[in-house]
Amino acid sequence: MKKLFLFSLLFSVILSGCNSSSGGSSEANNQVTVGTWGGDYENFLGKFVEPNLPEDISVITVPESTNARMTKARIEKDGESTYDVINLEDNTMQQLVDEGLLMELDYSKIPNAENISPDLKNPYFIPHIYSAGTIVYNERLVEEVPDSWDILWDPKYKGKIGIHTVIFPRYIFAAAAVEGVGQSQEWDKAWDKLLSLTDNEPKFYTSQEQIATALQTGEIAMTVTWRARAIQWNEAGGDPISSVVPNEGTFPTVFGAGIPKNAKNVDAAYEYLNAMLEPSGQASFATEMGYAPTVLNAELPEEVKNQISFSDDELSRIYPIDLEYITEHYADWKEKFDRDFASQ
Predict the structure, then answer these.
(1) Are 227 and 306 in contact (CB under 8 A)?
(2) How far apart (Å, rounded) are the C-alpha atoms in residues 184 and 180?
(3) Are residues 162 and 201 in the same domain?
(4) Quick one: DSSP state of residue 311?
(5) Which of 37, 243, 284, 303 is the most buried (most CB within 10 A)?
């Protein structure tokens, strides 16, 4: 009887090991930890993504700053990742790709990915939502619709230009666009143009919330950010806010999700990525946040579509960007931007 008991115990241990993947217990493998932004984005993940997951998968969200997520991914590269899924903007996601920290995705495990807009597909991360950089302006202070990035240098708006320091590459691009090198890998040729913007005494802000208040109260007349933000800020009240794609063009910004190479629960991570692309959730994000869906089968109310969409004419001026070029120069640009521009 004792031998039979020991055999049964040994068999159950072996069976248990066979039924769980290399990441740990079956309970752990049905749990997905998501490193993401806080605030509305985190709340909407809970409302619009999690309901599309299989019932046996539980979610832990870890809301942290972009820098915190990037740092944690780098520190943990030789161990076990805190995150099973990491959310980042495309240019910062590319940094992790370049450093070999994200796994190449097996798209056969993401059925909803077949509906991703072809221009937005990436081997290492799925696109969740996107918008494009625009001039966002206070209609009360800017009576004529701007048609060029050069309006940022117009002395008429001295002291009325808002600079969001977190998205500093957008301002380098604006200068490059004015100098005719925006669609090239020669943005450094526009550095003097960017520095000359200090003559217009711009105001510097470190968050979108600060920019929103400044625009809505007339503290500033315009800034550079995504159309989605203009939609959100209009709904919040204050002065009317509009956005425009300048004649020189712009580029899209994609907010996506990838899987660290050392993620614990890869199967659950794939389920989460698939749920992020569910068309109903994509439509809800568009309605609530003003960002465009990344899948072609998301059906939007006509009013929402008219608000967040870009016209055919505008789309012709939205160009793909070389993310590797930006990430290659990102650290150097950031140092120069802070030292030579933002500190003036």
Answers:
(1) no
(2) 9
(3) yes
(4) P
(5) 243
* In a shared domain, residues 138 and 246: yes
DSSP letter (8 states) at residue 148: S
Beta strands 58-63 and 85-89 are unpaired
Token pair 């800034």 in the structure block, residue = 223
pLDDT 10s digits, 23-45 = 444 445 789 999 999 988 999 99
Contact 259, 265 (CB under 8 A): no
The pTM of the whole model exceeds 0.85: no
Q: Which two tokens stand for residue 138?
A: 């206070």
Taking alpha carbons only, the member of 270, 269, 264 closest to residue 80 is: 264
114 and 32 belong to one structural domain: yes
Tell me the per-residue pLDDT of 158-196, one tens digit each, with 9 for 90 and over.
999 999 998 999 999 999 999 999 999 999 999 999 999
**Does 138 share its domain with 57?**
no
Please name every residue paired with 242 in a beta bridge, in sequence order, or none if there are none.
137
CA distance 173 to 186: 10
How many CB atoms lie under 10 A from the CB of residue 200?
16
Using alpha carbons, select from 177, 226, 181, 174 the residue that is nearest to residue 200: 174
Residue numbers of the domain that contains 213: 131-252+321-342
Nearest CA to 321 out of 86, 115, 99, 133 is that of: 133
Nearest to 241 by CA among 268, 215, 205, 266: 215
Q: Which parts of the chain are beta strand (E)?
A: 31-36, 58-63, 85-89, 125-138, 162-164, 203-205, 222-226, 241-244, 252-258, 292-293
Residue 158, both tokens: 């001295």
Q: Any idea which residue has 């999690």 for tokens?
A: 50
Domain count, the chain: 2
The residues facing 224 across adjacent strands are 135
